[in-house]
Design goal:
This protein is α+β, with helices and mostly antiparallel strands. It is 20% helix and 39% strand. The chain has a seven-stranded mixed sheet, with helices on both faces. Strand 6 and strand 7 form a beta hairpin. The chain is globular and about 40 Å long.
């Protein structure tokens, strides 16, 4: 069973570093936006261990014309727990809060190797694949929330 709840930014950093930025300094996992107004962070726990994370920010994508937008950033699940539905549970939990804030869409810059995963969560691709140094190829994905 997976338990999902909001968490403090400091709880994210170990998983962010291990999964998303292992070849970068630990400080690269601490984002300037983590404590911005409207930002929140969600974690999934299995047997009281944090296994999946994601961060959500009030941020407009310059090419998407929706009035109220949230950005999903730094979503990661520990590899040994990827079949528990934790990532899906984290996104669904956050979508509820984002809808309560009257946002129209949730968007992200997803790595191309997980584009199919985002599509299973209801996201669709926008635009072309681009390089996001030093991480690699990404694509903008978005999901309407109305």
């Amino acid at each position: 069973m997976v338990i999902v709840r909001e968490i403090q930014p400091e709880m994210l950093y170990d998983i962010r570093h291990a999964i998303l930025r292992p070849h970068q300094p630990y400080e690269a996992c601490i984002y300037d936006t983590d404590n911005d107004a409207g930002a929140f962070h969600v974690g999934a726990f299995h047997q009281e261990k944090l296994i999946s994370i994601a961060s959500f920010y009030v941020e407009k994508h310059p090419d998407l014309s929706y009035k109220s937008q949230y950005r999903l950033r730094a979503m990661a699940t520990l590899p040994e727990h990827r079949q528990l539905g934790a990532g899906r549970a984290v996104v669904q939990f956050a979508e509820g809060r984002i809808k309560d804030n009257q946002a129209e869409i949730l968007w992200c810059m997803g790595r191309t190797n997980v584009q199919g995963y985002y599509e299973k969560l209801g996201f669709q691709a926008y635009g072309e694949v681009f390089d996001y140094p030093p991480i690699g190829p990404h694509i903008v994905m978005y999901k309407e929330l109305f």
